[in-house]
Amino acid sequence: MGSNAGKTTAEKLTEKNGITFYRIRSDKFKTARADLFFVDDLTRERASANALIPMIIKRGCSKYPSVRDFESKLEELYGADIDGSVIKKGELQFIGFHMSHVSDRYLNGERLFDQCCDLLMCMLENPMTEDGGFCKTVFAQERDNLVDYIRSRVNDKMRYSLLRCIEEMCEGEPYAIPDEGTEEDVLLLTPRSAMDIYGQMVSTYPAYAYISGEVDDKSVQRFIDGFAQWDRGNVKKVSVAWESKDVTQVKKIHENMDVSQGKLCLGFRTHVDPGSEDYYPLVVYNGILGGDAHSKLFRNVREQASLAYYAQSVLEKYKGLMIILSGIDAGNRERAEDIILEQVEAMKKGNFSKEDLEATLKSLETGMKSMQDSQRGIVDFFLSQHLIESGEDFDSMTEKLKRVTMDDVVRVAQKVQLDTIYFLKPDGRRQEESV
Amino acid sequence: MNYRTITSERLGETIYEYEHETGLKVLYVKKPDYYKKTAMFGTSYGSMDNVFKVPGREGEIEVPDGIAHFLEHKLFEQEDGNMLDKFSRLGASPNAFTSFNQTVYYFSCTDLFEENFRMLLDYVQKPFLTDESVEKEKGIIGQEIMMYRDNADWRVFFNLLDCLYVKHPVKLEIAGSVESIAKITRELLYDCYNTFYSPSNMVVTAVADLDPEAVFSIANDMIKFKDRGKVEKKYPDEPERLNREYAEQKLAVSMPLFNMGIKDNVRAEGYELLKRRAALSILLYSIMGRSSELYDRLYSERLINDSFRCEVSLTTSYGYMVWGGQSPNPEKAAAIIADALKEAASKGIRDDDFNRVRKSQEGLFIRSLNSVEYIAREMLDSYFNGTGLFDEIRAYEEMDAGYINKVAGEVLSNPAALSVINPL
C-alpha cells in the first residue's frame, strides 16, 4: 500500500574556510532551515563559555540591538525562529545556531530565506559588544540565566538521576562534564573571556552547515558566500576517539532527596566503538533489552512485576555507554535491581527469542524512516555521520541493522559491563503520603 | 465509497471525511512523501467526566477520580495479550493519553499501516477487564502518580487550577490519587466504557501517504460497535470568583517556580470558540510574549528567566490563560504582571502588535503541519469542538483588533490566582 519517498541525502556543496556546507533536498516540509554547528573538544575550560555564547548571541545584534527589536522582527517574519543549542556527543561539544521559517509558498508573496539568513549572520558577526567584551548587562543576564538552568537540572528527577549517574560513572573523564558546563565554571567567565572564546569559536572550531527545504540555488549560494569573509585560517582538529575503560569495581551511589519516588539508574560500559561493525548489534541489543514496549525491561519490570511506570535503556553512542533507568517505590529497590540485572544476564546467555529480535529490527527500521519526516532529525542524523566521517545514509544504515543476527547480539552482550548503580532515594519525609 | 473533501489552497492540504453507518466520522489527511503514518481513535471523555448517566439506567453515578485514565491503561490489555507488545512487534509505536476532556489511543508506524490500523480500531471497541488485572494496574498507575507528585511543573499547574476553579472538575488530577484509584472496580470501568465509548461520542483520525479509500475501507470493515445514544455530560455551574488567590507548596527544586492565571467565564462553541481562542492567544502574546515590553522588563529585572511561558486553553466547558516559569521572586513578578493586565484591559491592543503577533501565530500553525501527529491530534480536537482543522488559520486570517479588544474587556479584568512552588 502507498508510495515511498525518494532517498534522503545530504549533498556536500562545498568546503570553504573550514566550514562544510550540505544541502538536504526535500519539498515535503512546510519550512526551510539553516543549521550551523561548531564543534569543540569537551573541556572544563571552554564548555561553559561555549554554552553561554548562543544565549548571548540571540539577545540581539547591531541592527536589532534589543531583545524586543529582535523578537519583533522574528514575529514579523511569520514567526521565524532563530535559536542556539549546545549538546555533547561523546567527548565533543556541539554549539548550534538554527534558523527556520515558513516556506515562501505558504505566504503572500514574501521571500523569507534571505531575510532570515541576514538576521542570523547579523547575530553571528555583530553581537552586542562593549569594551572588547560582550555587552555587560546582556552578559550578566544570560550568565544568571545559564546558572538558573544548570541548577534547575534537579527539577526533573528522571533526567537528573541520569545525569548524576553519568557524572559519577565518568568521574575524571571529560564526559563527566555536563552539556552546558558547570555552575562553578560559568561564574568564572567575564564578558571579555566569553568574547575571546567566541572569537576562537568562529575562527578555529570546525564547522558544519546544513540547508534544508525549498530554497533556490541563488539563495543557497548567497548564504555560503556570507561566510567568505570570515577569518578562519587556522581551523583546529577535534577527535571523536575514545578510550574504553575497563571496570574493576562497581560503584554504588545513594543520594537522598525529599521525593516520593525513587529513581534507579544503572550505568554500563559497552566497549563498542561507534565506527565499528559491532555498533549495529549493540543498537539491536539495546532495543531487545530496554528499547520499546516489547523489551525485556518493560515486560518484566513494568508489566510482570508492576514495579514501575517506566523502565528503559538508552545508549550514548560516542562514549560507549548504556544507562538503564526506572522510577520505583523505595521499598522495591532491591527487587527492581535484581530483575533488571537478570535481564542483562539473560541477554548474555542469549536468552531472548527470534521474535524479540525481529520486533526490535522492525522498530529500529520504523525509527530510521520516521527520522526522515523531521528536518531537524535529518540534520542530526547526517551531522552524526559526518562527525565520524561515515558515509552511511538512512538506507544503508537500516540495511546494516537488518543484517544483525542473534549471534551478533549475544557477542556484544558479553562486552557490556556494569559500572555504576545510582539511586536517588526518597529520604522518608514524604513517606506518610506514599503507597 | 462516499466521502467529502475539504481543501485549503493556501496550506496545500486536503481533509477527507468519511461517515460510517454508525455515525462515527473518520478524518484523513494524505501526506505525500512522508514515511510516518499515524491513526488516532479518541473519545470525548476525560478526567473531568466524573458524574454522568449510564445509558439504560436511571439517575447519575459519581465515579472515582482518575478512572478515565485508568480505563485508558486497561484497554491495552486484551484477552490474548498486551496491545503495546503487539503493536511494537509490528514495528509500530503505540500510545494513548487522557486529558481533561479526551481519551485518545493512537499509534505511529512506517510499514504495515493496515494491520496496525485494524488492531487499533479493534481493541478500542473490545474492553477485556478482569478483577485481577484491575488490581495489578493499581501498582503501575500508583508509580505514575508518584512520578507526577515529584514533578514541580505539574504540581505548580494543578495547584493553580485548584485556585482558579471552585467546582469545575477540570481541577482534578488526571490520574487521580492512590486513594481514589483504590476504589476503582471492574464494574465501574465498564460503566464508564459503556457510556462514553460509543460512535457518536468518538472520532477516528489518520494521516499517511495512502489512498483515502484504502483507509476508509479498513474503518468500514472494523467498526462494529453500536451507538448507545447521546452522551449526557453534566458539569457544575462554575462561579466567576476564584476558589483561592494563592497556593504554595515545597518541593526539591532549585528556585521558586510560579504559575499565574485567570479564568475566561464566557462560554463559546464551534467556530466562535476557535475565534475566541485565537483572539486570546494574540492578546496574551502581545502582552507578555518575548517581543513585549512586559517580558523585557521582567527579564531585565531578573524576575523571570528563559523558562517563562504563556498559554491559552479554551474549551466548551472551561477556559483559562496561564503563564509562569522560574522566578527568584514570584510575588513581585505577579504584581507587575497584574498591573500590565490592568493596563492592557483599558488600553486594548496596539495595531502594530496585533499585526505582528497575528502573523507569527499564523506561521506557527503552518509550521506545525510538518508533523503527522500534530495534524491527527488537531483534527481530533477540532472535531470535538465542532470545527475543522483549517478553521484555525481562518480564525487568524479573519481576526480584527476590535474583536480582540472586546474579548480583552471580558477577560483581562478577571481576578488572577498565583501558585508557587518553593525550594525546600
Description:
The complex is a heterodimer of chains A (435) and B (424). Chain A is built from 15 helices and 13 strands. Chain A has 435 residues and is α+β, with helices and mostly antiparallel strands. Chain B has 424 residues and is α+β, with helices and mostly antiparallel strands. Chain B has 2 domains: 4-222, Metalloenzyme, LuxS/M16 peptidase-like (Cytochrome Bc1 Complex, Chain A, domain 1), CATH 3.30.830.10; 246-423, Metalloenzyme, LuxS/M16 peptidase-like (Cytochrome Bc1 Complex, Chain A, domain 1, 2-Layer Sandwich). Chain B contains 15 helices and 16 strands. Chain B has helices spanning 67-75, 83-89, 113-124, 131-149, 152-164, 178-182, 186-196, 212-222, 270-288, 293-300, 330-347, 351-368, 372-384, 391-397, 401-411; strands at 4-8, 13-19, 25-30, 37-43, 51-53, 60-62, 77-78, 81-82, 93-98, 103-109, 202-208, 246-251, 257-263, 309-314, 319-326, 417-423. In chain B, the strands form 4 sheets. Chain B has a 7-stranded mixed sheet with strand order 1-2-3-11-4-10-9, sandwiched between helices. In chain B, strands 12-16-13-15-14 form a 5-stranded mixed sheet, with helices on both faces. Chain B starts with a strand and ends with a strand. The interface between A and B is large, with 81 and 83 residues.
Identify the CATH architecture of the largest domain in chain B. Answer: 2-Layer Sandwich
Terminus-to-terminus distance of chain A: 49 Å
| Structural class by sheet pairing and helices of chain A | alpha+beta
Largest sheet of chain A: 6 strands, mixed
Largest protein-protein interface = A-B, 81 and 83 residues
Radius of gyration of chain B: 22 Å
Number of E-type strands of chain A? 13
Looking at the structure, what is the overall shape of chain A? globular
Q: How many distinct domains of chain B?
A: 2
**Strand ordering within the main sheet of chain B:** 1-2-3-11-4-10-9
Output the CATH homologous superfamily of the largest domain in chain A: Metalloenzyme, LuxS/M16 peptidase-like
Tally of DSSP β-strands of chain B: 16
- Helical element count of chain B? 15
